[in-house]
Amino acid sequence: MNDTLTLILYIVLGVAVLVGLATVLMRGPKAPPGGYSSTRDANDPADGKPSVDSPAPVAGRLVRLRERLARSNNMLGKGLLALLSRDKIDQDVWDEVEETLLMADLGSEPSMRLVEALQSRVRVEGTEDPAHVKQMLREELLKVVNPDLDRSLKLDGADGNPGVVLVVGVNGVGKTTTVGKLARVMVAEDKQLLLGAADTFRAAAADQLQTWGNRVGVETVRSEKDGADPASVAFETIKEGKQRGVDTVMIDTAGRLQNKAGLMDQLGKIKRVVEKEAPVTEVLLVIDATTGQNGMVQAKVFAEVVDITGIVLTKLDGTAKGGIVVAIQETLGVPVKLVGLGEGPDDLAPFDAEGFVDALID
Ligand SMILES: Nc1nc2c(ncn2[C@@H]2O[C@H](COP(=O)(O)OP(=O)(O)OP(=O)(O)O)[C@@H](O)[C@H]2O)c(=O)[nH]1
């Protein structure tokens, strides 16, 4: 009898301990006395939106990045100045000047033009004073880089349409990176935009673009299907962009250069389909400055397929052949509008002839 009573007592006590424990565990974290003053954590953004990067201002970017350009292209300017500062400038020196320009990928015709212009000035003005030599070289370099070209980006649309920017170029030249960096430039200028991942051959390319967009709060239209029709993604992007009333729609394309006919089919179709919705305002061809003549050949194929309106020259920080700026402009008859000077998110600058020449010879 006594044993039964003790057993019952133990059972009751056990149940009481379990119930107590469960109550404590299920109650969850305790609010501070007086409750929370806000529904946000201290480090939540004030407007409740996910935090985004603030891209660096665009003005003065080439000046900020000039150091990099000067570092890689210093030999060109220094070499030319040294040659022009010699006591006696004979034909051998002029040959060396021309060789230096050719080595920097300036192209044969512009190199010859520059040498002839310098030759005639040296004959007339002389080269006694180093400051004068520098000034002369600066002016003649500037002429071949051509400060008069219209390098403005056509990012705005008309008649209620968004501006439509197509970004084309061979794989690996820095297309997606450029779209990402350019999106940051536009965000820094308070533009509303939408990105389109029409590089559907590689799912990672769309991911990469989306990541760039997310960092600055810009959305990306993409297809979940690998190998989907790039033109249909481009079309959807424009349609969506129009509905949202964004300022600019920017489309990253795939640049597989299997052959000219294939490329023409693909880019031609994208452009045709897009233009059913809104006119294309800018077609940027991205070229890797480190690829020299090879890059030029590819550039020509693209230029035959679509009407290029501007060049983006990437990786100019990684080559001593800055003369490629001139060669490309002369060959394609299209201005370099932007230059890539590094892998950082804000290492893209509007090209400016004066800043470029100063970086070469300072
Ligand atoms: N140093 C340097 N690297 C750059 C520059 N622009 C792009 N890159 C690098 O070049 C590589 C290729 O860039 P992507 O943007 O993936 O090239 P893509 O043309 O889009 O290539 P796909 O996506 O394969 O079509 C990346 O490692 C970039 O960081 C630049 O201006 N300077």
From TrEMBL:
Top EC category: hydrolase
Keywords: Cell membrane, Cytoplasm, GTP-binding, Hydrolase, Membrane, Nucleotide-binding, Receptor, Transmembrane, Transmembrane helix
Record's bilayer topology term: Peripheral membrane protein
Subcellular location as annotated: Cell membrane; Cytoplasm
Enzyme Commission number(s): 3.6.5.4
Catalytic activity from the UniProt record: GTP + H2O = GDP + phosphate + H(+)
Origin: domain of life: Bacteria
PROSITE patterns reported for this sequence: SRP54
Biological process terms in GO annotation: SRP-dependent cotranslational protein targeting to membrane
Stretches the record annotates as Disordered: 30-57
GO cellular component entries: cytoplasm; plasma membrane
Domain SRP54-type proteins GTP-binding positions: 335-348
Membership in a protein family: Belongs to the GTP-binding SRP family. FtsY subfamily.
Self-association state and partner proteins as the record states: Part of the signal recognition particle protein translocation system, which is composed of SRP and FtsY.
Protein's job: Involved in targeting and insertion of nascent membrane proteins into the cytoplasmic membrane. Acts as a receptor for the complex formed by the signal recognition particle (SRP) and the ribosome-nascent chain (RNC).
Name of the protein in question: Signal recognition particle receptor FtsY
